[in-house]
Amino acid sequence: MQAATPARLDPFLSQKLRFWSLMAMVLLVYVHAYNLHPRYLQPFTPVQEALGPGTWLQYLLANGLLRFRIPILFAISGYLFAWREGAEPHGQRVRRRLRTLGLPYLLWSLIWLAALWALEQFPVAKQAVLDAEISPFWPRQLLSQLTAGELVQRWLVEPAPFQLWFLRSLLGLNLVYPWLRVAVLRKPAIYFSVAGLLWFFMVPVPLIGDEGPLFFGLGAWLALRGKDVLAPPGWLRPGLLAGLWLGACLLKTWLAFQVGPPFSLPLALSMLALHKVGEISGMLVAWFGLNGLVRWCMDRNWFQWLTGFSFMIYVLHVPLVNYATELALRYGRAVPHIHLLTYLLLPLLVVAVSVGLGALLRAVAPGIYAVLTGGRGLATS
Fold this sequence. Notes:
This is Acyltransferase. It is a multi-pass membrane protein. By secondary structure, this protein is mainly alpha-helical. It has helices at 11-32, 53-65, 69-83, 90-119, 123-132, 148-156, 165-175, 177-186, 188-200, 212-224, 238-258, 265-289, 291-298, 301-306, 310-331, 338-364, 366-373. Helix 1 (11-32) crosses helix 13. The longest helix is centred in the first third of the chain and has 30 residues, at 90-119. It is globular, with a radius of gyration of 21 Å.
């Protein structure tokens, strides 16, 4: 039987949800700021550059320790969506989500198309767009090279801010929530077995992807069953789990620098398995093992203020960080350790710019800000 929906969230749980919603976005910037070759990160991506402290650290962070950020976001979203069940009919909830997820998706994709067109008018910025090579229409990287149909596809399906796939996936999960709810409550073993296999082998569900069904479903199940998500399970040993998280990521990083062509299937599966272990253990360590950090940060007014701009960091950081990376590497090539410095410092600058633009827009045009963010972060403290 479904647990009764609480009147309000536990105050510390509310703080944890806001903290990790922000931190997951900051970590997302660091994952997307990866500047080694090949740039496109998959669980089994090798490294084509020499092993050194800088290259080792980049891979360990971007393709190891920080990869739990999407699972924890899906789990938070699933928990909150299920926790609010009953507040209004599902059809009304879906209409609301079309406004808070679908409309920002369309608007930000269109805004970035306009921004890309403007960047292509300046030779320096145009070269950065070419160097980044993040257009799905490779080798054609410029909007001027696309047909009318491809421009529509670029707007609706393959947005320049490619991280918007998360909004599309979340909207799809919200649409099918009544069926998902039945599955996680009545046949949880079957549901999570199937969702787990889809996640592990990276088999995407159309319009939803491969990660959402497992972690959104987990969050929904926890809320529907009234589970205490603040108290760690009895079997959980934070120290051992942290060692597993670090060990899996270290071993995967070592393998990434050891492999060479031909890239064998057993090696790819080994790296994939280590990646998945790192995701799960990292999410559990972050949620249950860092309460002290959460309390310290959420006791600071400036940090609470920052949590209001999580969405702005999300929608602005890509492709901004990609183009800025190419400019930094092109014009700073004489600077020692430029790849590592760019990786460590540029994300902080991108976060600061995103927060600054968000704060300015919220101050001068709160109505527009509300539409662009789906109503998120409207509080001023």
